[in-house]
């Protein structure tokens, strides 16, 4: 908040290249990030939990997401959420009239405290600004502080995320009145979204699919 207020007078360096920029992310870095965009983001919209991913998790895009999460640059999330929303509208894999509830994958309280924000929630906020879908941030609660998934095999990932979520009291009493679209920053094997969907299904809450900013190409 203070940063956006101050930026009316001061110009901040681009978080990715440190050049003083007109925009929060300089034009040059925006172009670089945009080069990771998939031409067919709806390509993986198949199966039980179909996926819509904006771009390839690699190079500048993976660096940008790391900056967002570990170097306190929420403005990168705003940009990526906007791009994800625009791409969804352009390549919408569902009926464009359909109402949806967007649920960002929650962080544990511990992680939220350390990071100060949930990157999925930031991305979801701007995604919903563009798509006009309903954003709900308190549908699921993360009750387990899981380890980072990087370097874990499929079974280890499943065990790591098992029983990590519960449906919030609010949703147990008042389930959403439209299907849920799960949103995460990165999609690797889908272990997290599958576990989240499983818990929601146990409460008869329908999950239509998952969306992510970046999808890894190697598993
Ligand atoms: Zn830059």
Automatic annotation (TrEMBL):
Keywords: Glycosyltransferase, Transferase. GO terms for molecular function: glycosyltransferase activity. The keyword Transcription does not apply. It comes from the Bacteria. Belongs to the ComF/GntX family. This is Putative amidophosphoribosyltransferase. It comes from Hyella patelloides LEGE 07179.
């Amino acid at each position: 908040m203070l940063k956006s207020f101050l930026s009316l007078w001061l110009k901040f360096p681009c978080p990715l290249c440190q050049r003083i920029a007109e925009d929060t992310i300089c034009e040059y870095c925006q172009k670089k990030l945009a080069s990771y965009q998939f031409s067919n983001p709806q390509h993986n919209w198949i199966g039980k939990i179909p996926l819509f991913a904006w771009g390839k998790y690699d190079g500048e895009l993976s660096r940008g997401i790391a900056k967002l999460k570990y170097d306190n640059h929420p403005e990168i999330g705003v940009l990526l959420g906007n791009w994800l929303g625009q791409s969804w509208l352009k390549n919408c894999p569902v009926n464009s009239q359909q109402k949806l509830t967007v649920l960002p994958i929650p962080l544990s309280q511990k992680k939220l405290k350390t990071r100060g924000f949930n990157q999925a929630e930031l991305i979801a906020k701007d995604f919903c600004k563009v798509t006009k879908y309903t954003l709900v941030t308190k549908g699921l609660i993360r009750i387990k502080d899981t380890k980072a998934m990087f370097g874990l095999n499929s079974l280890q990932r499943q065990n790591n995320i098992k029983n990590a979520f519960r449906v919030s009291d609010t949703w147990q009493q008042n389930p959403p009145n439209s299907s849920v679209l799960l949103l995460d920053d990165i999609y690797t094997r889908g272990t997290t979204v599958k576990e989240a969907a499983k818990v929601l299904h146990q409460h008869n809450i329908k999950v239509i699919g998952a969306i992510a900013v970046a999808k890894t190409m190697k598993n």
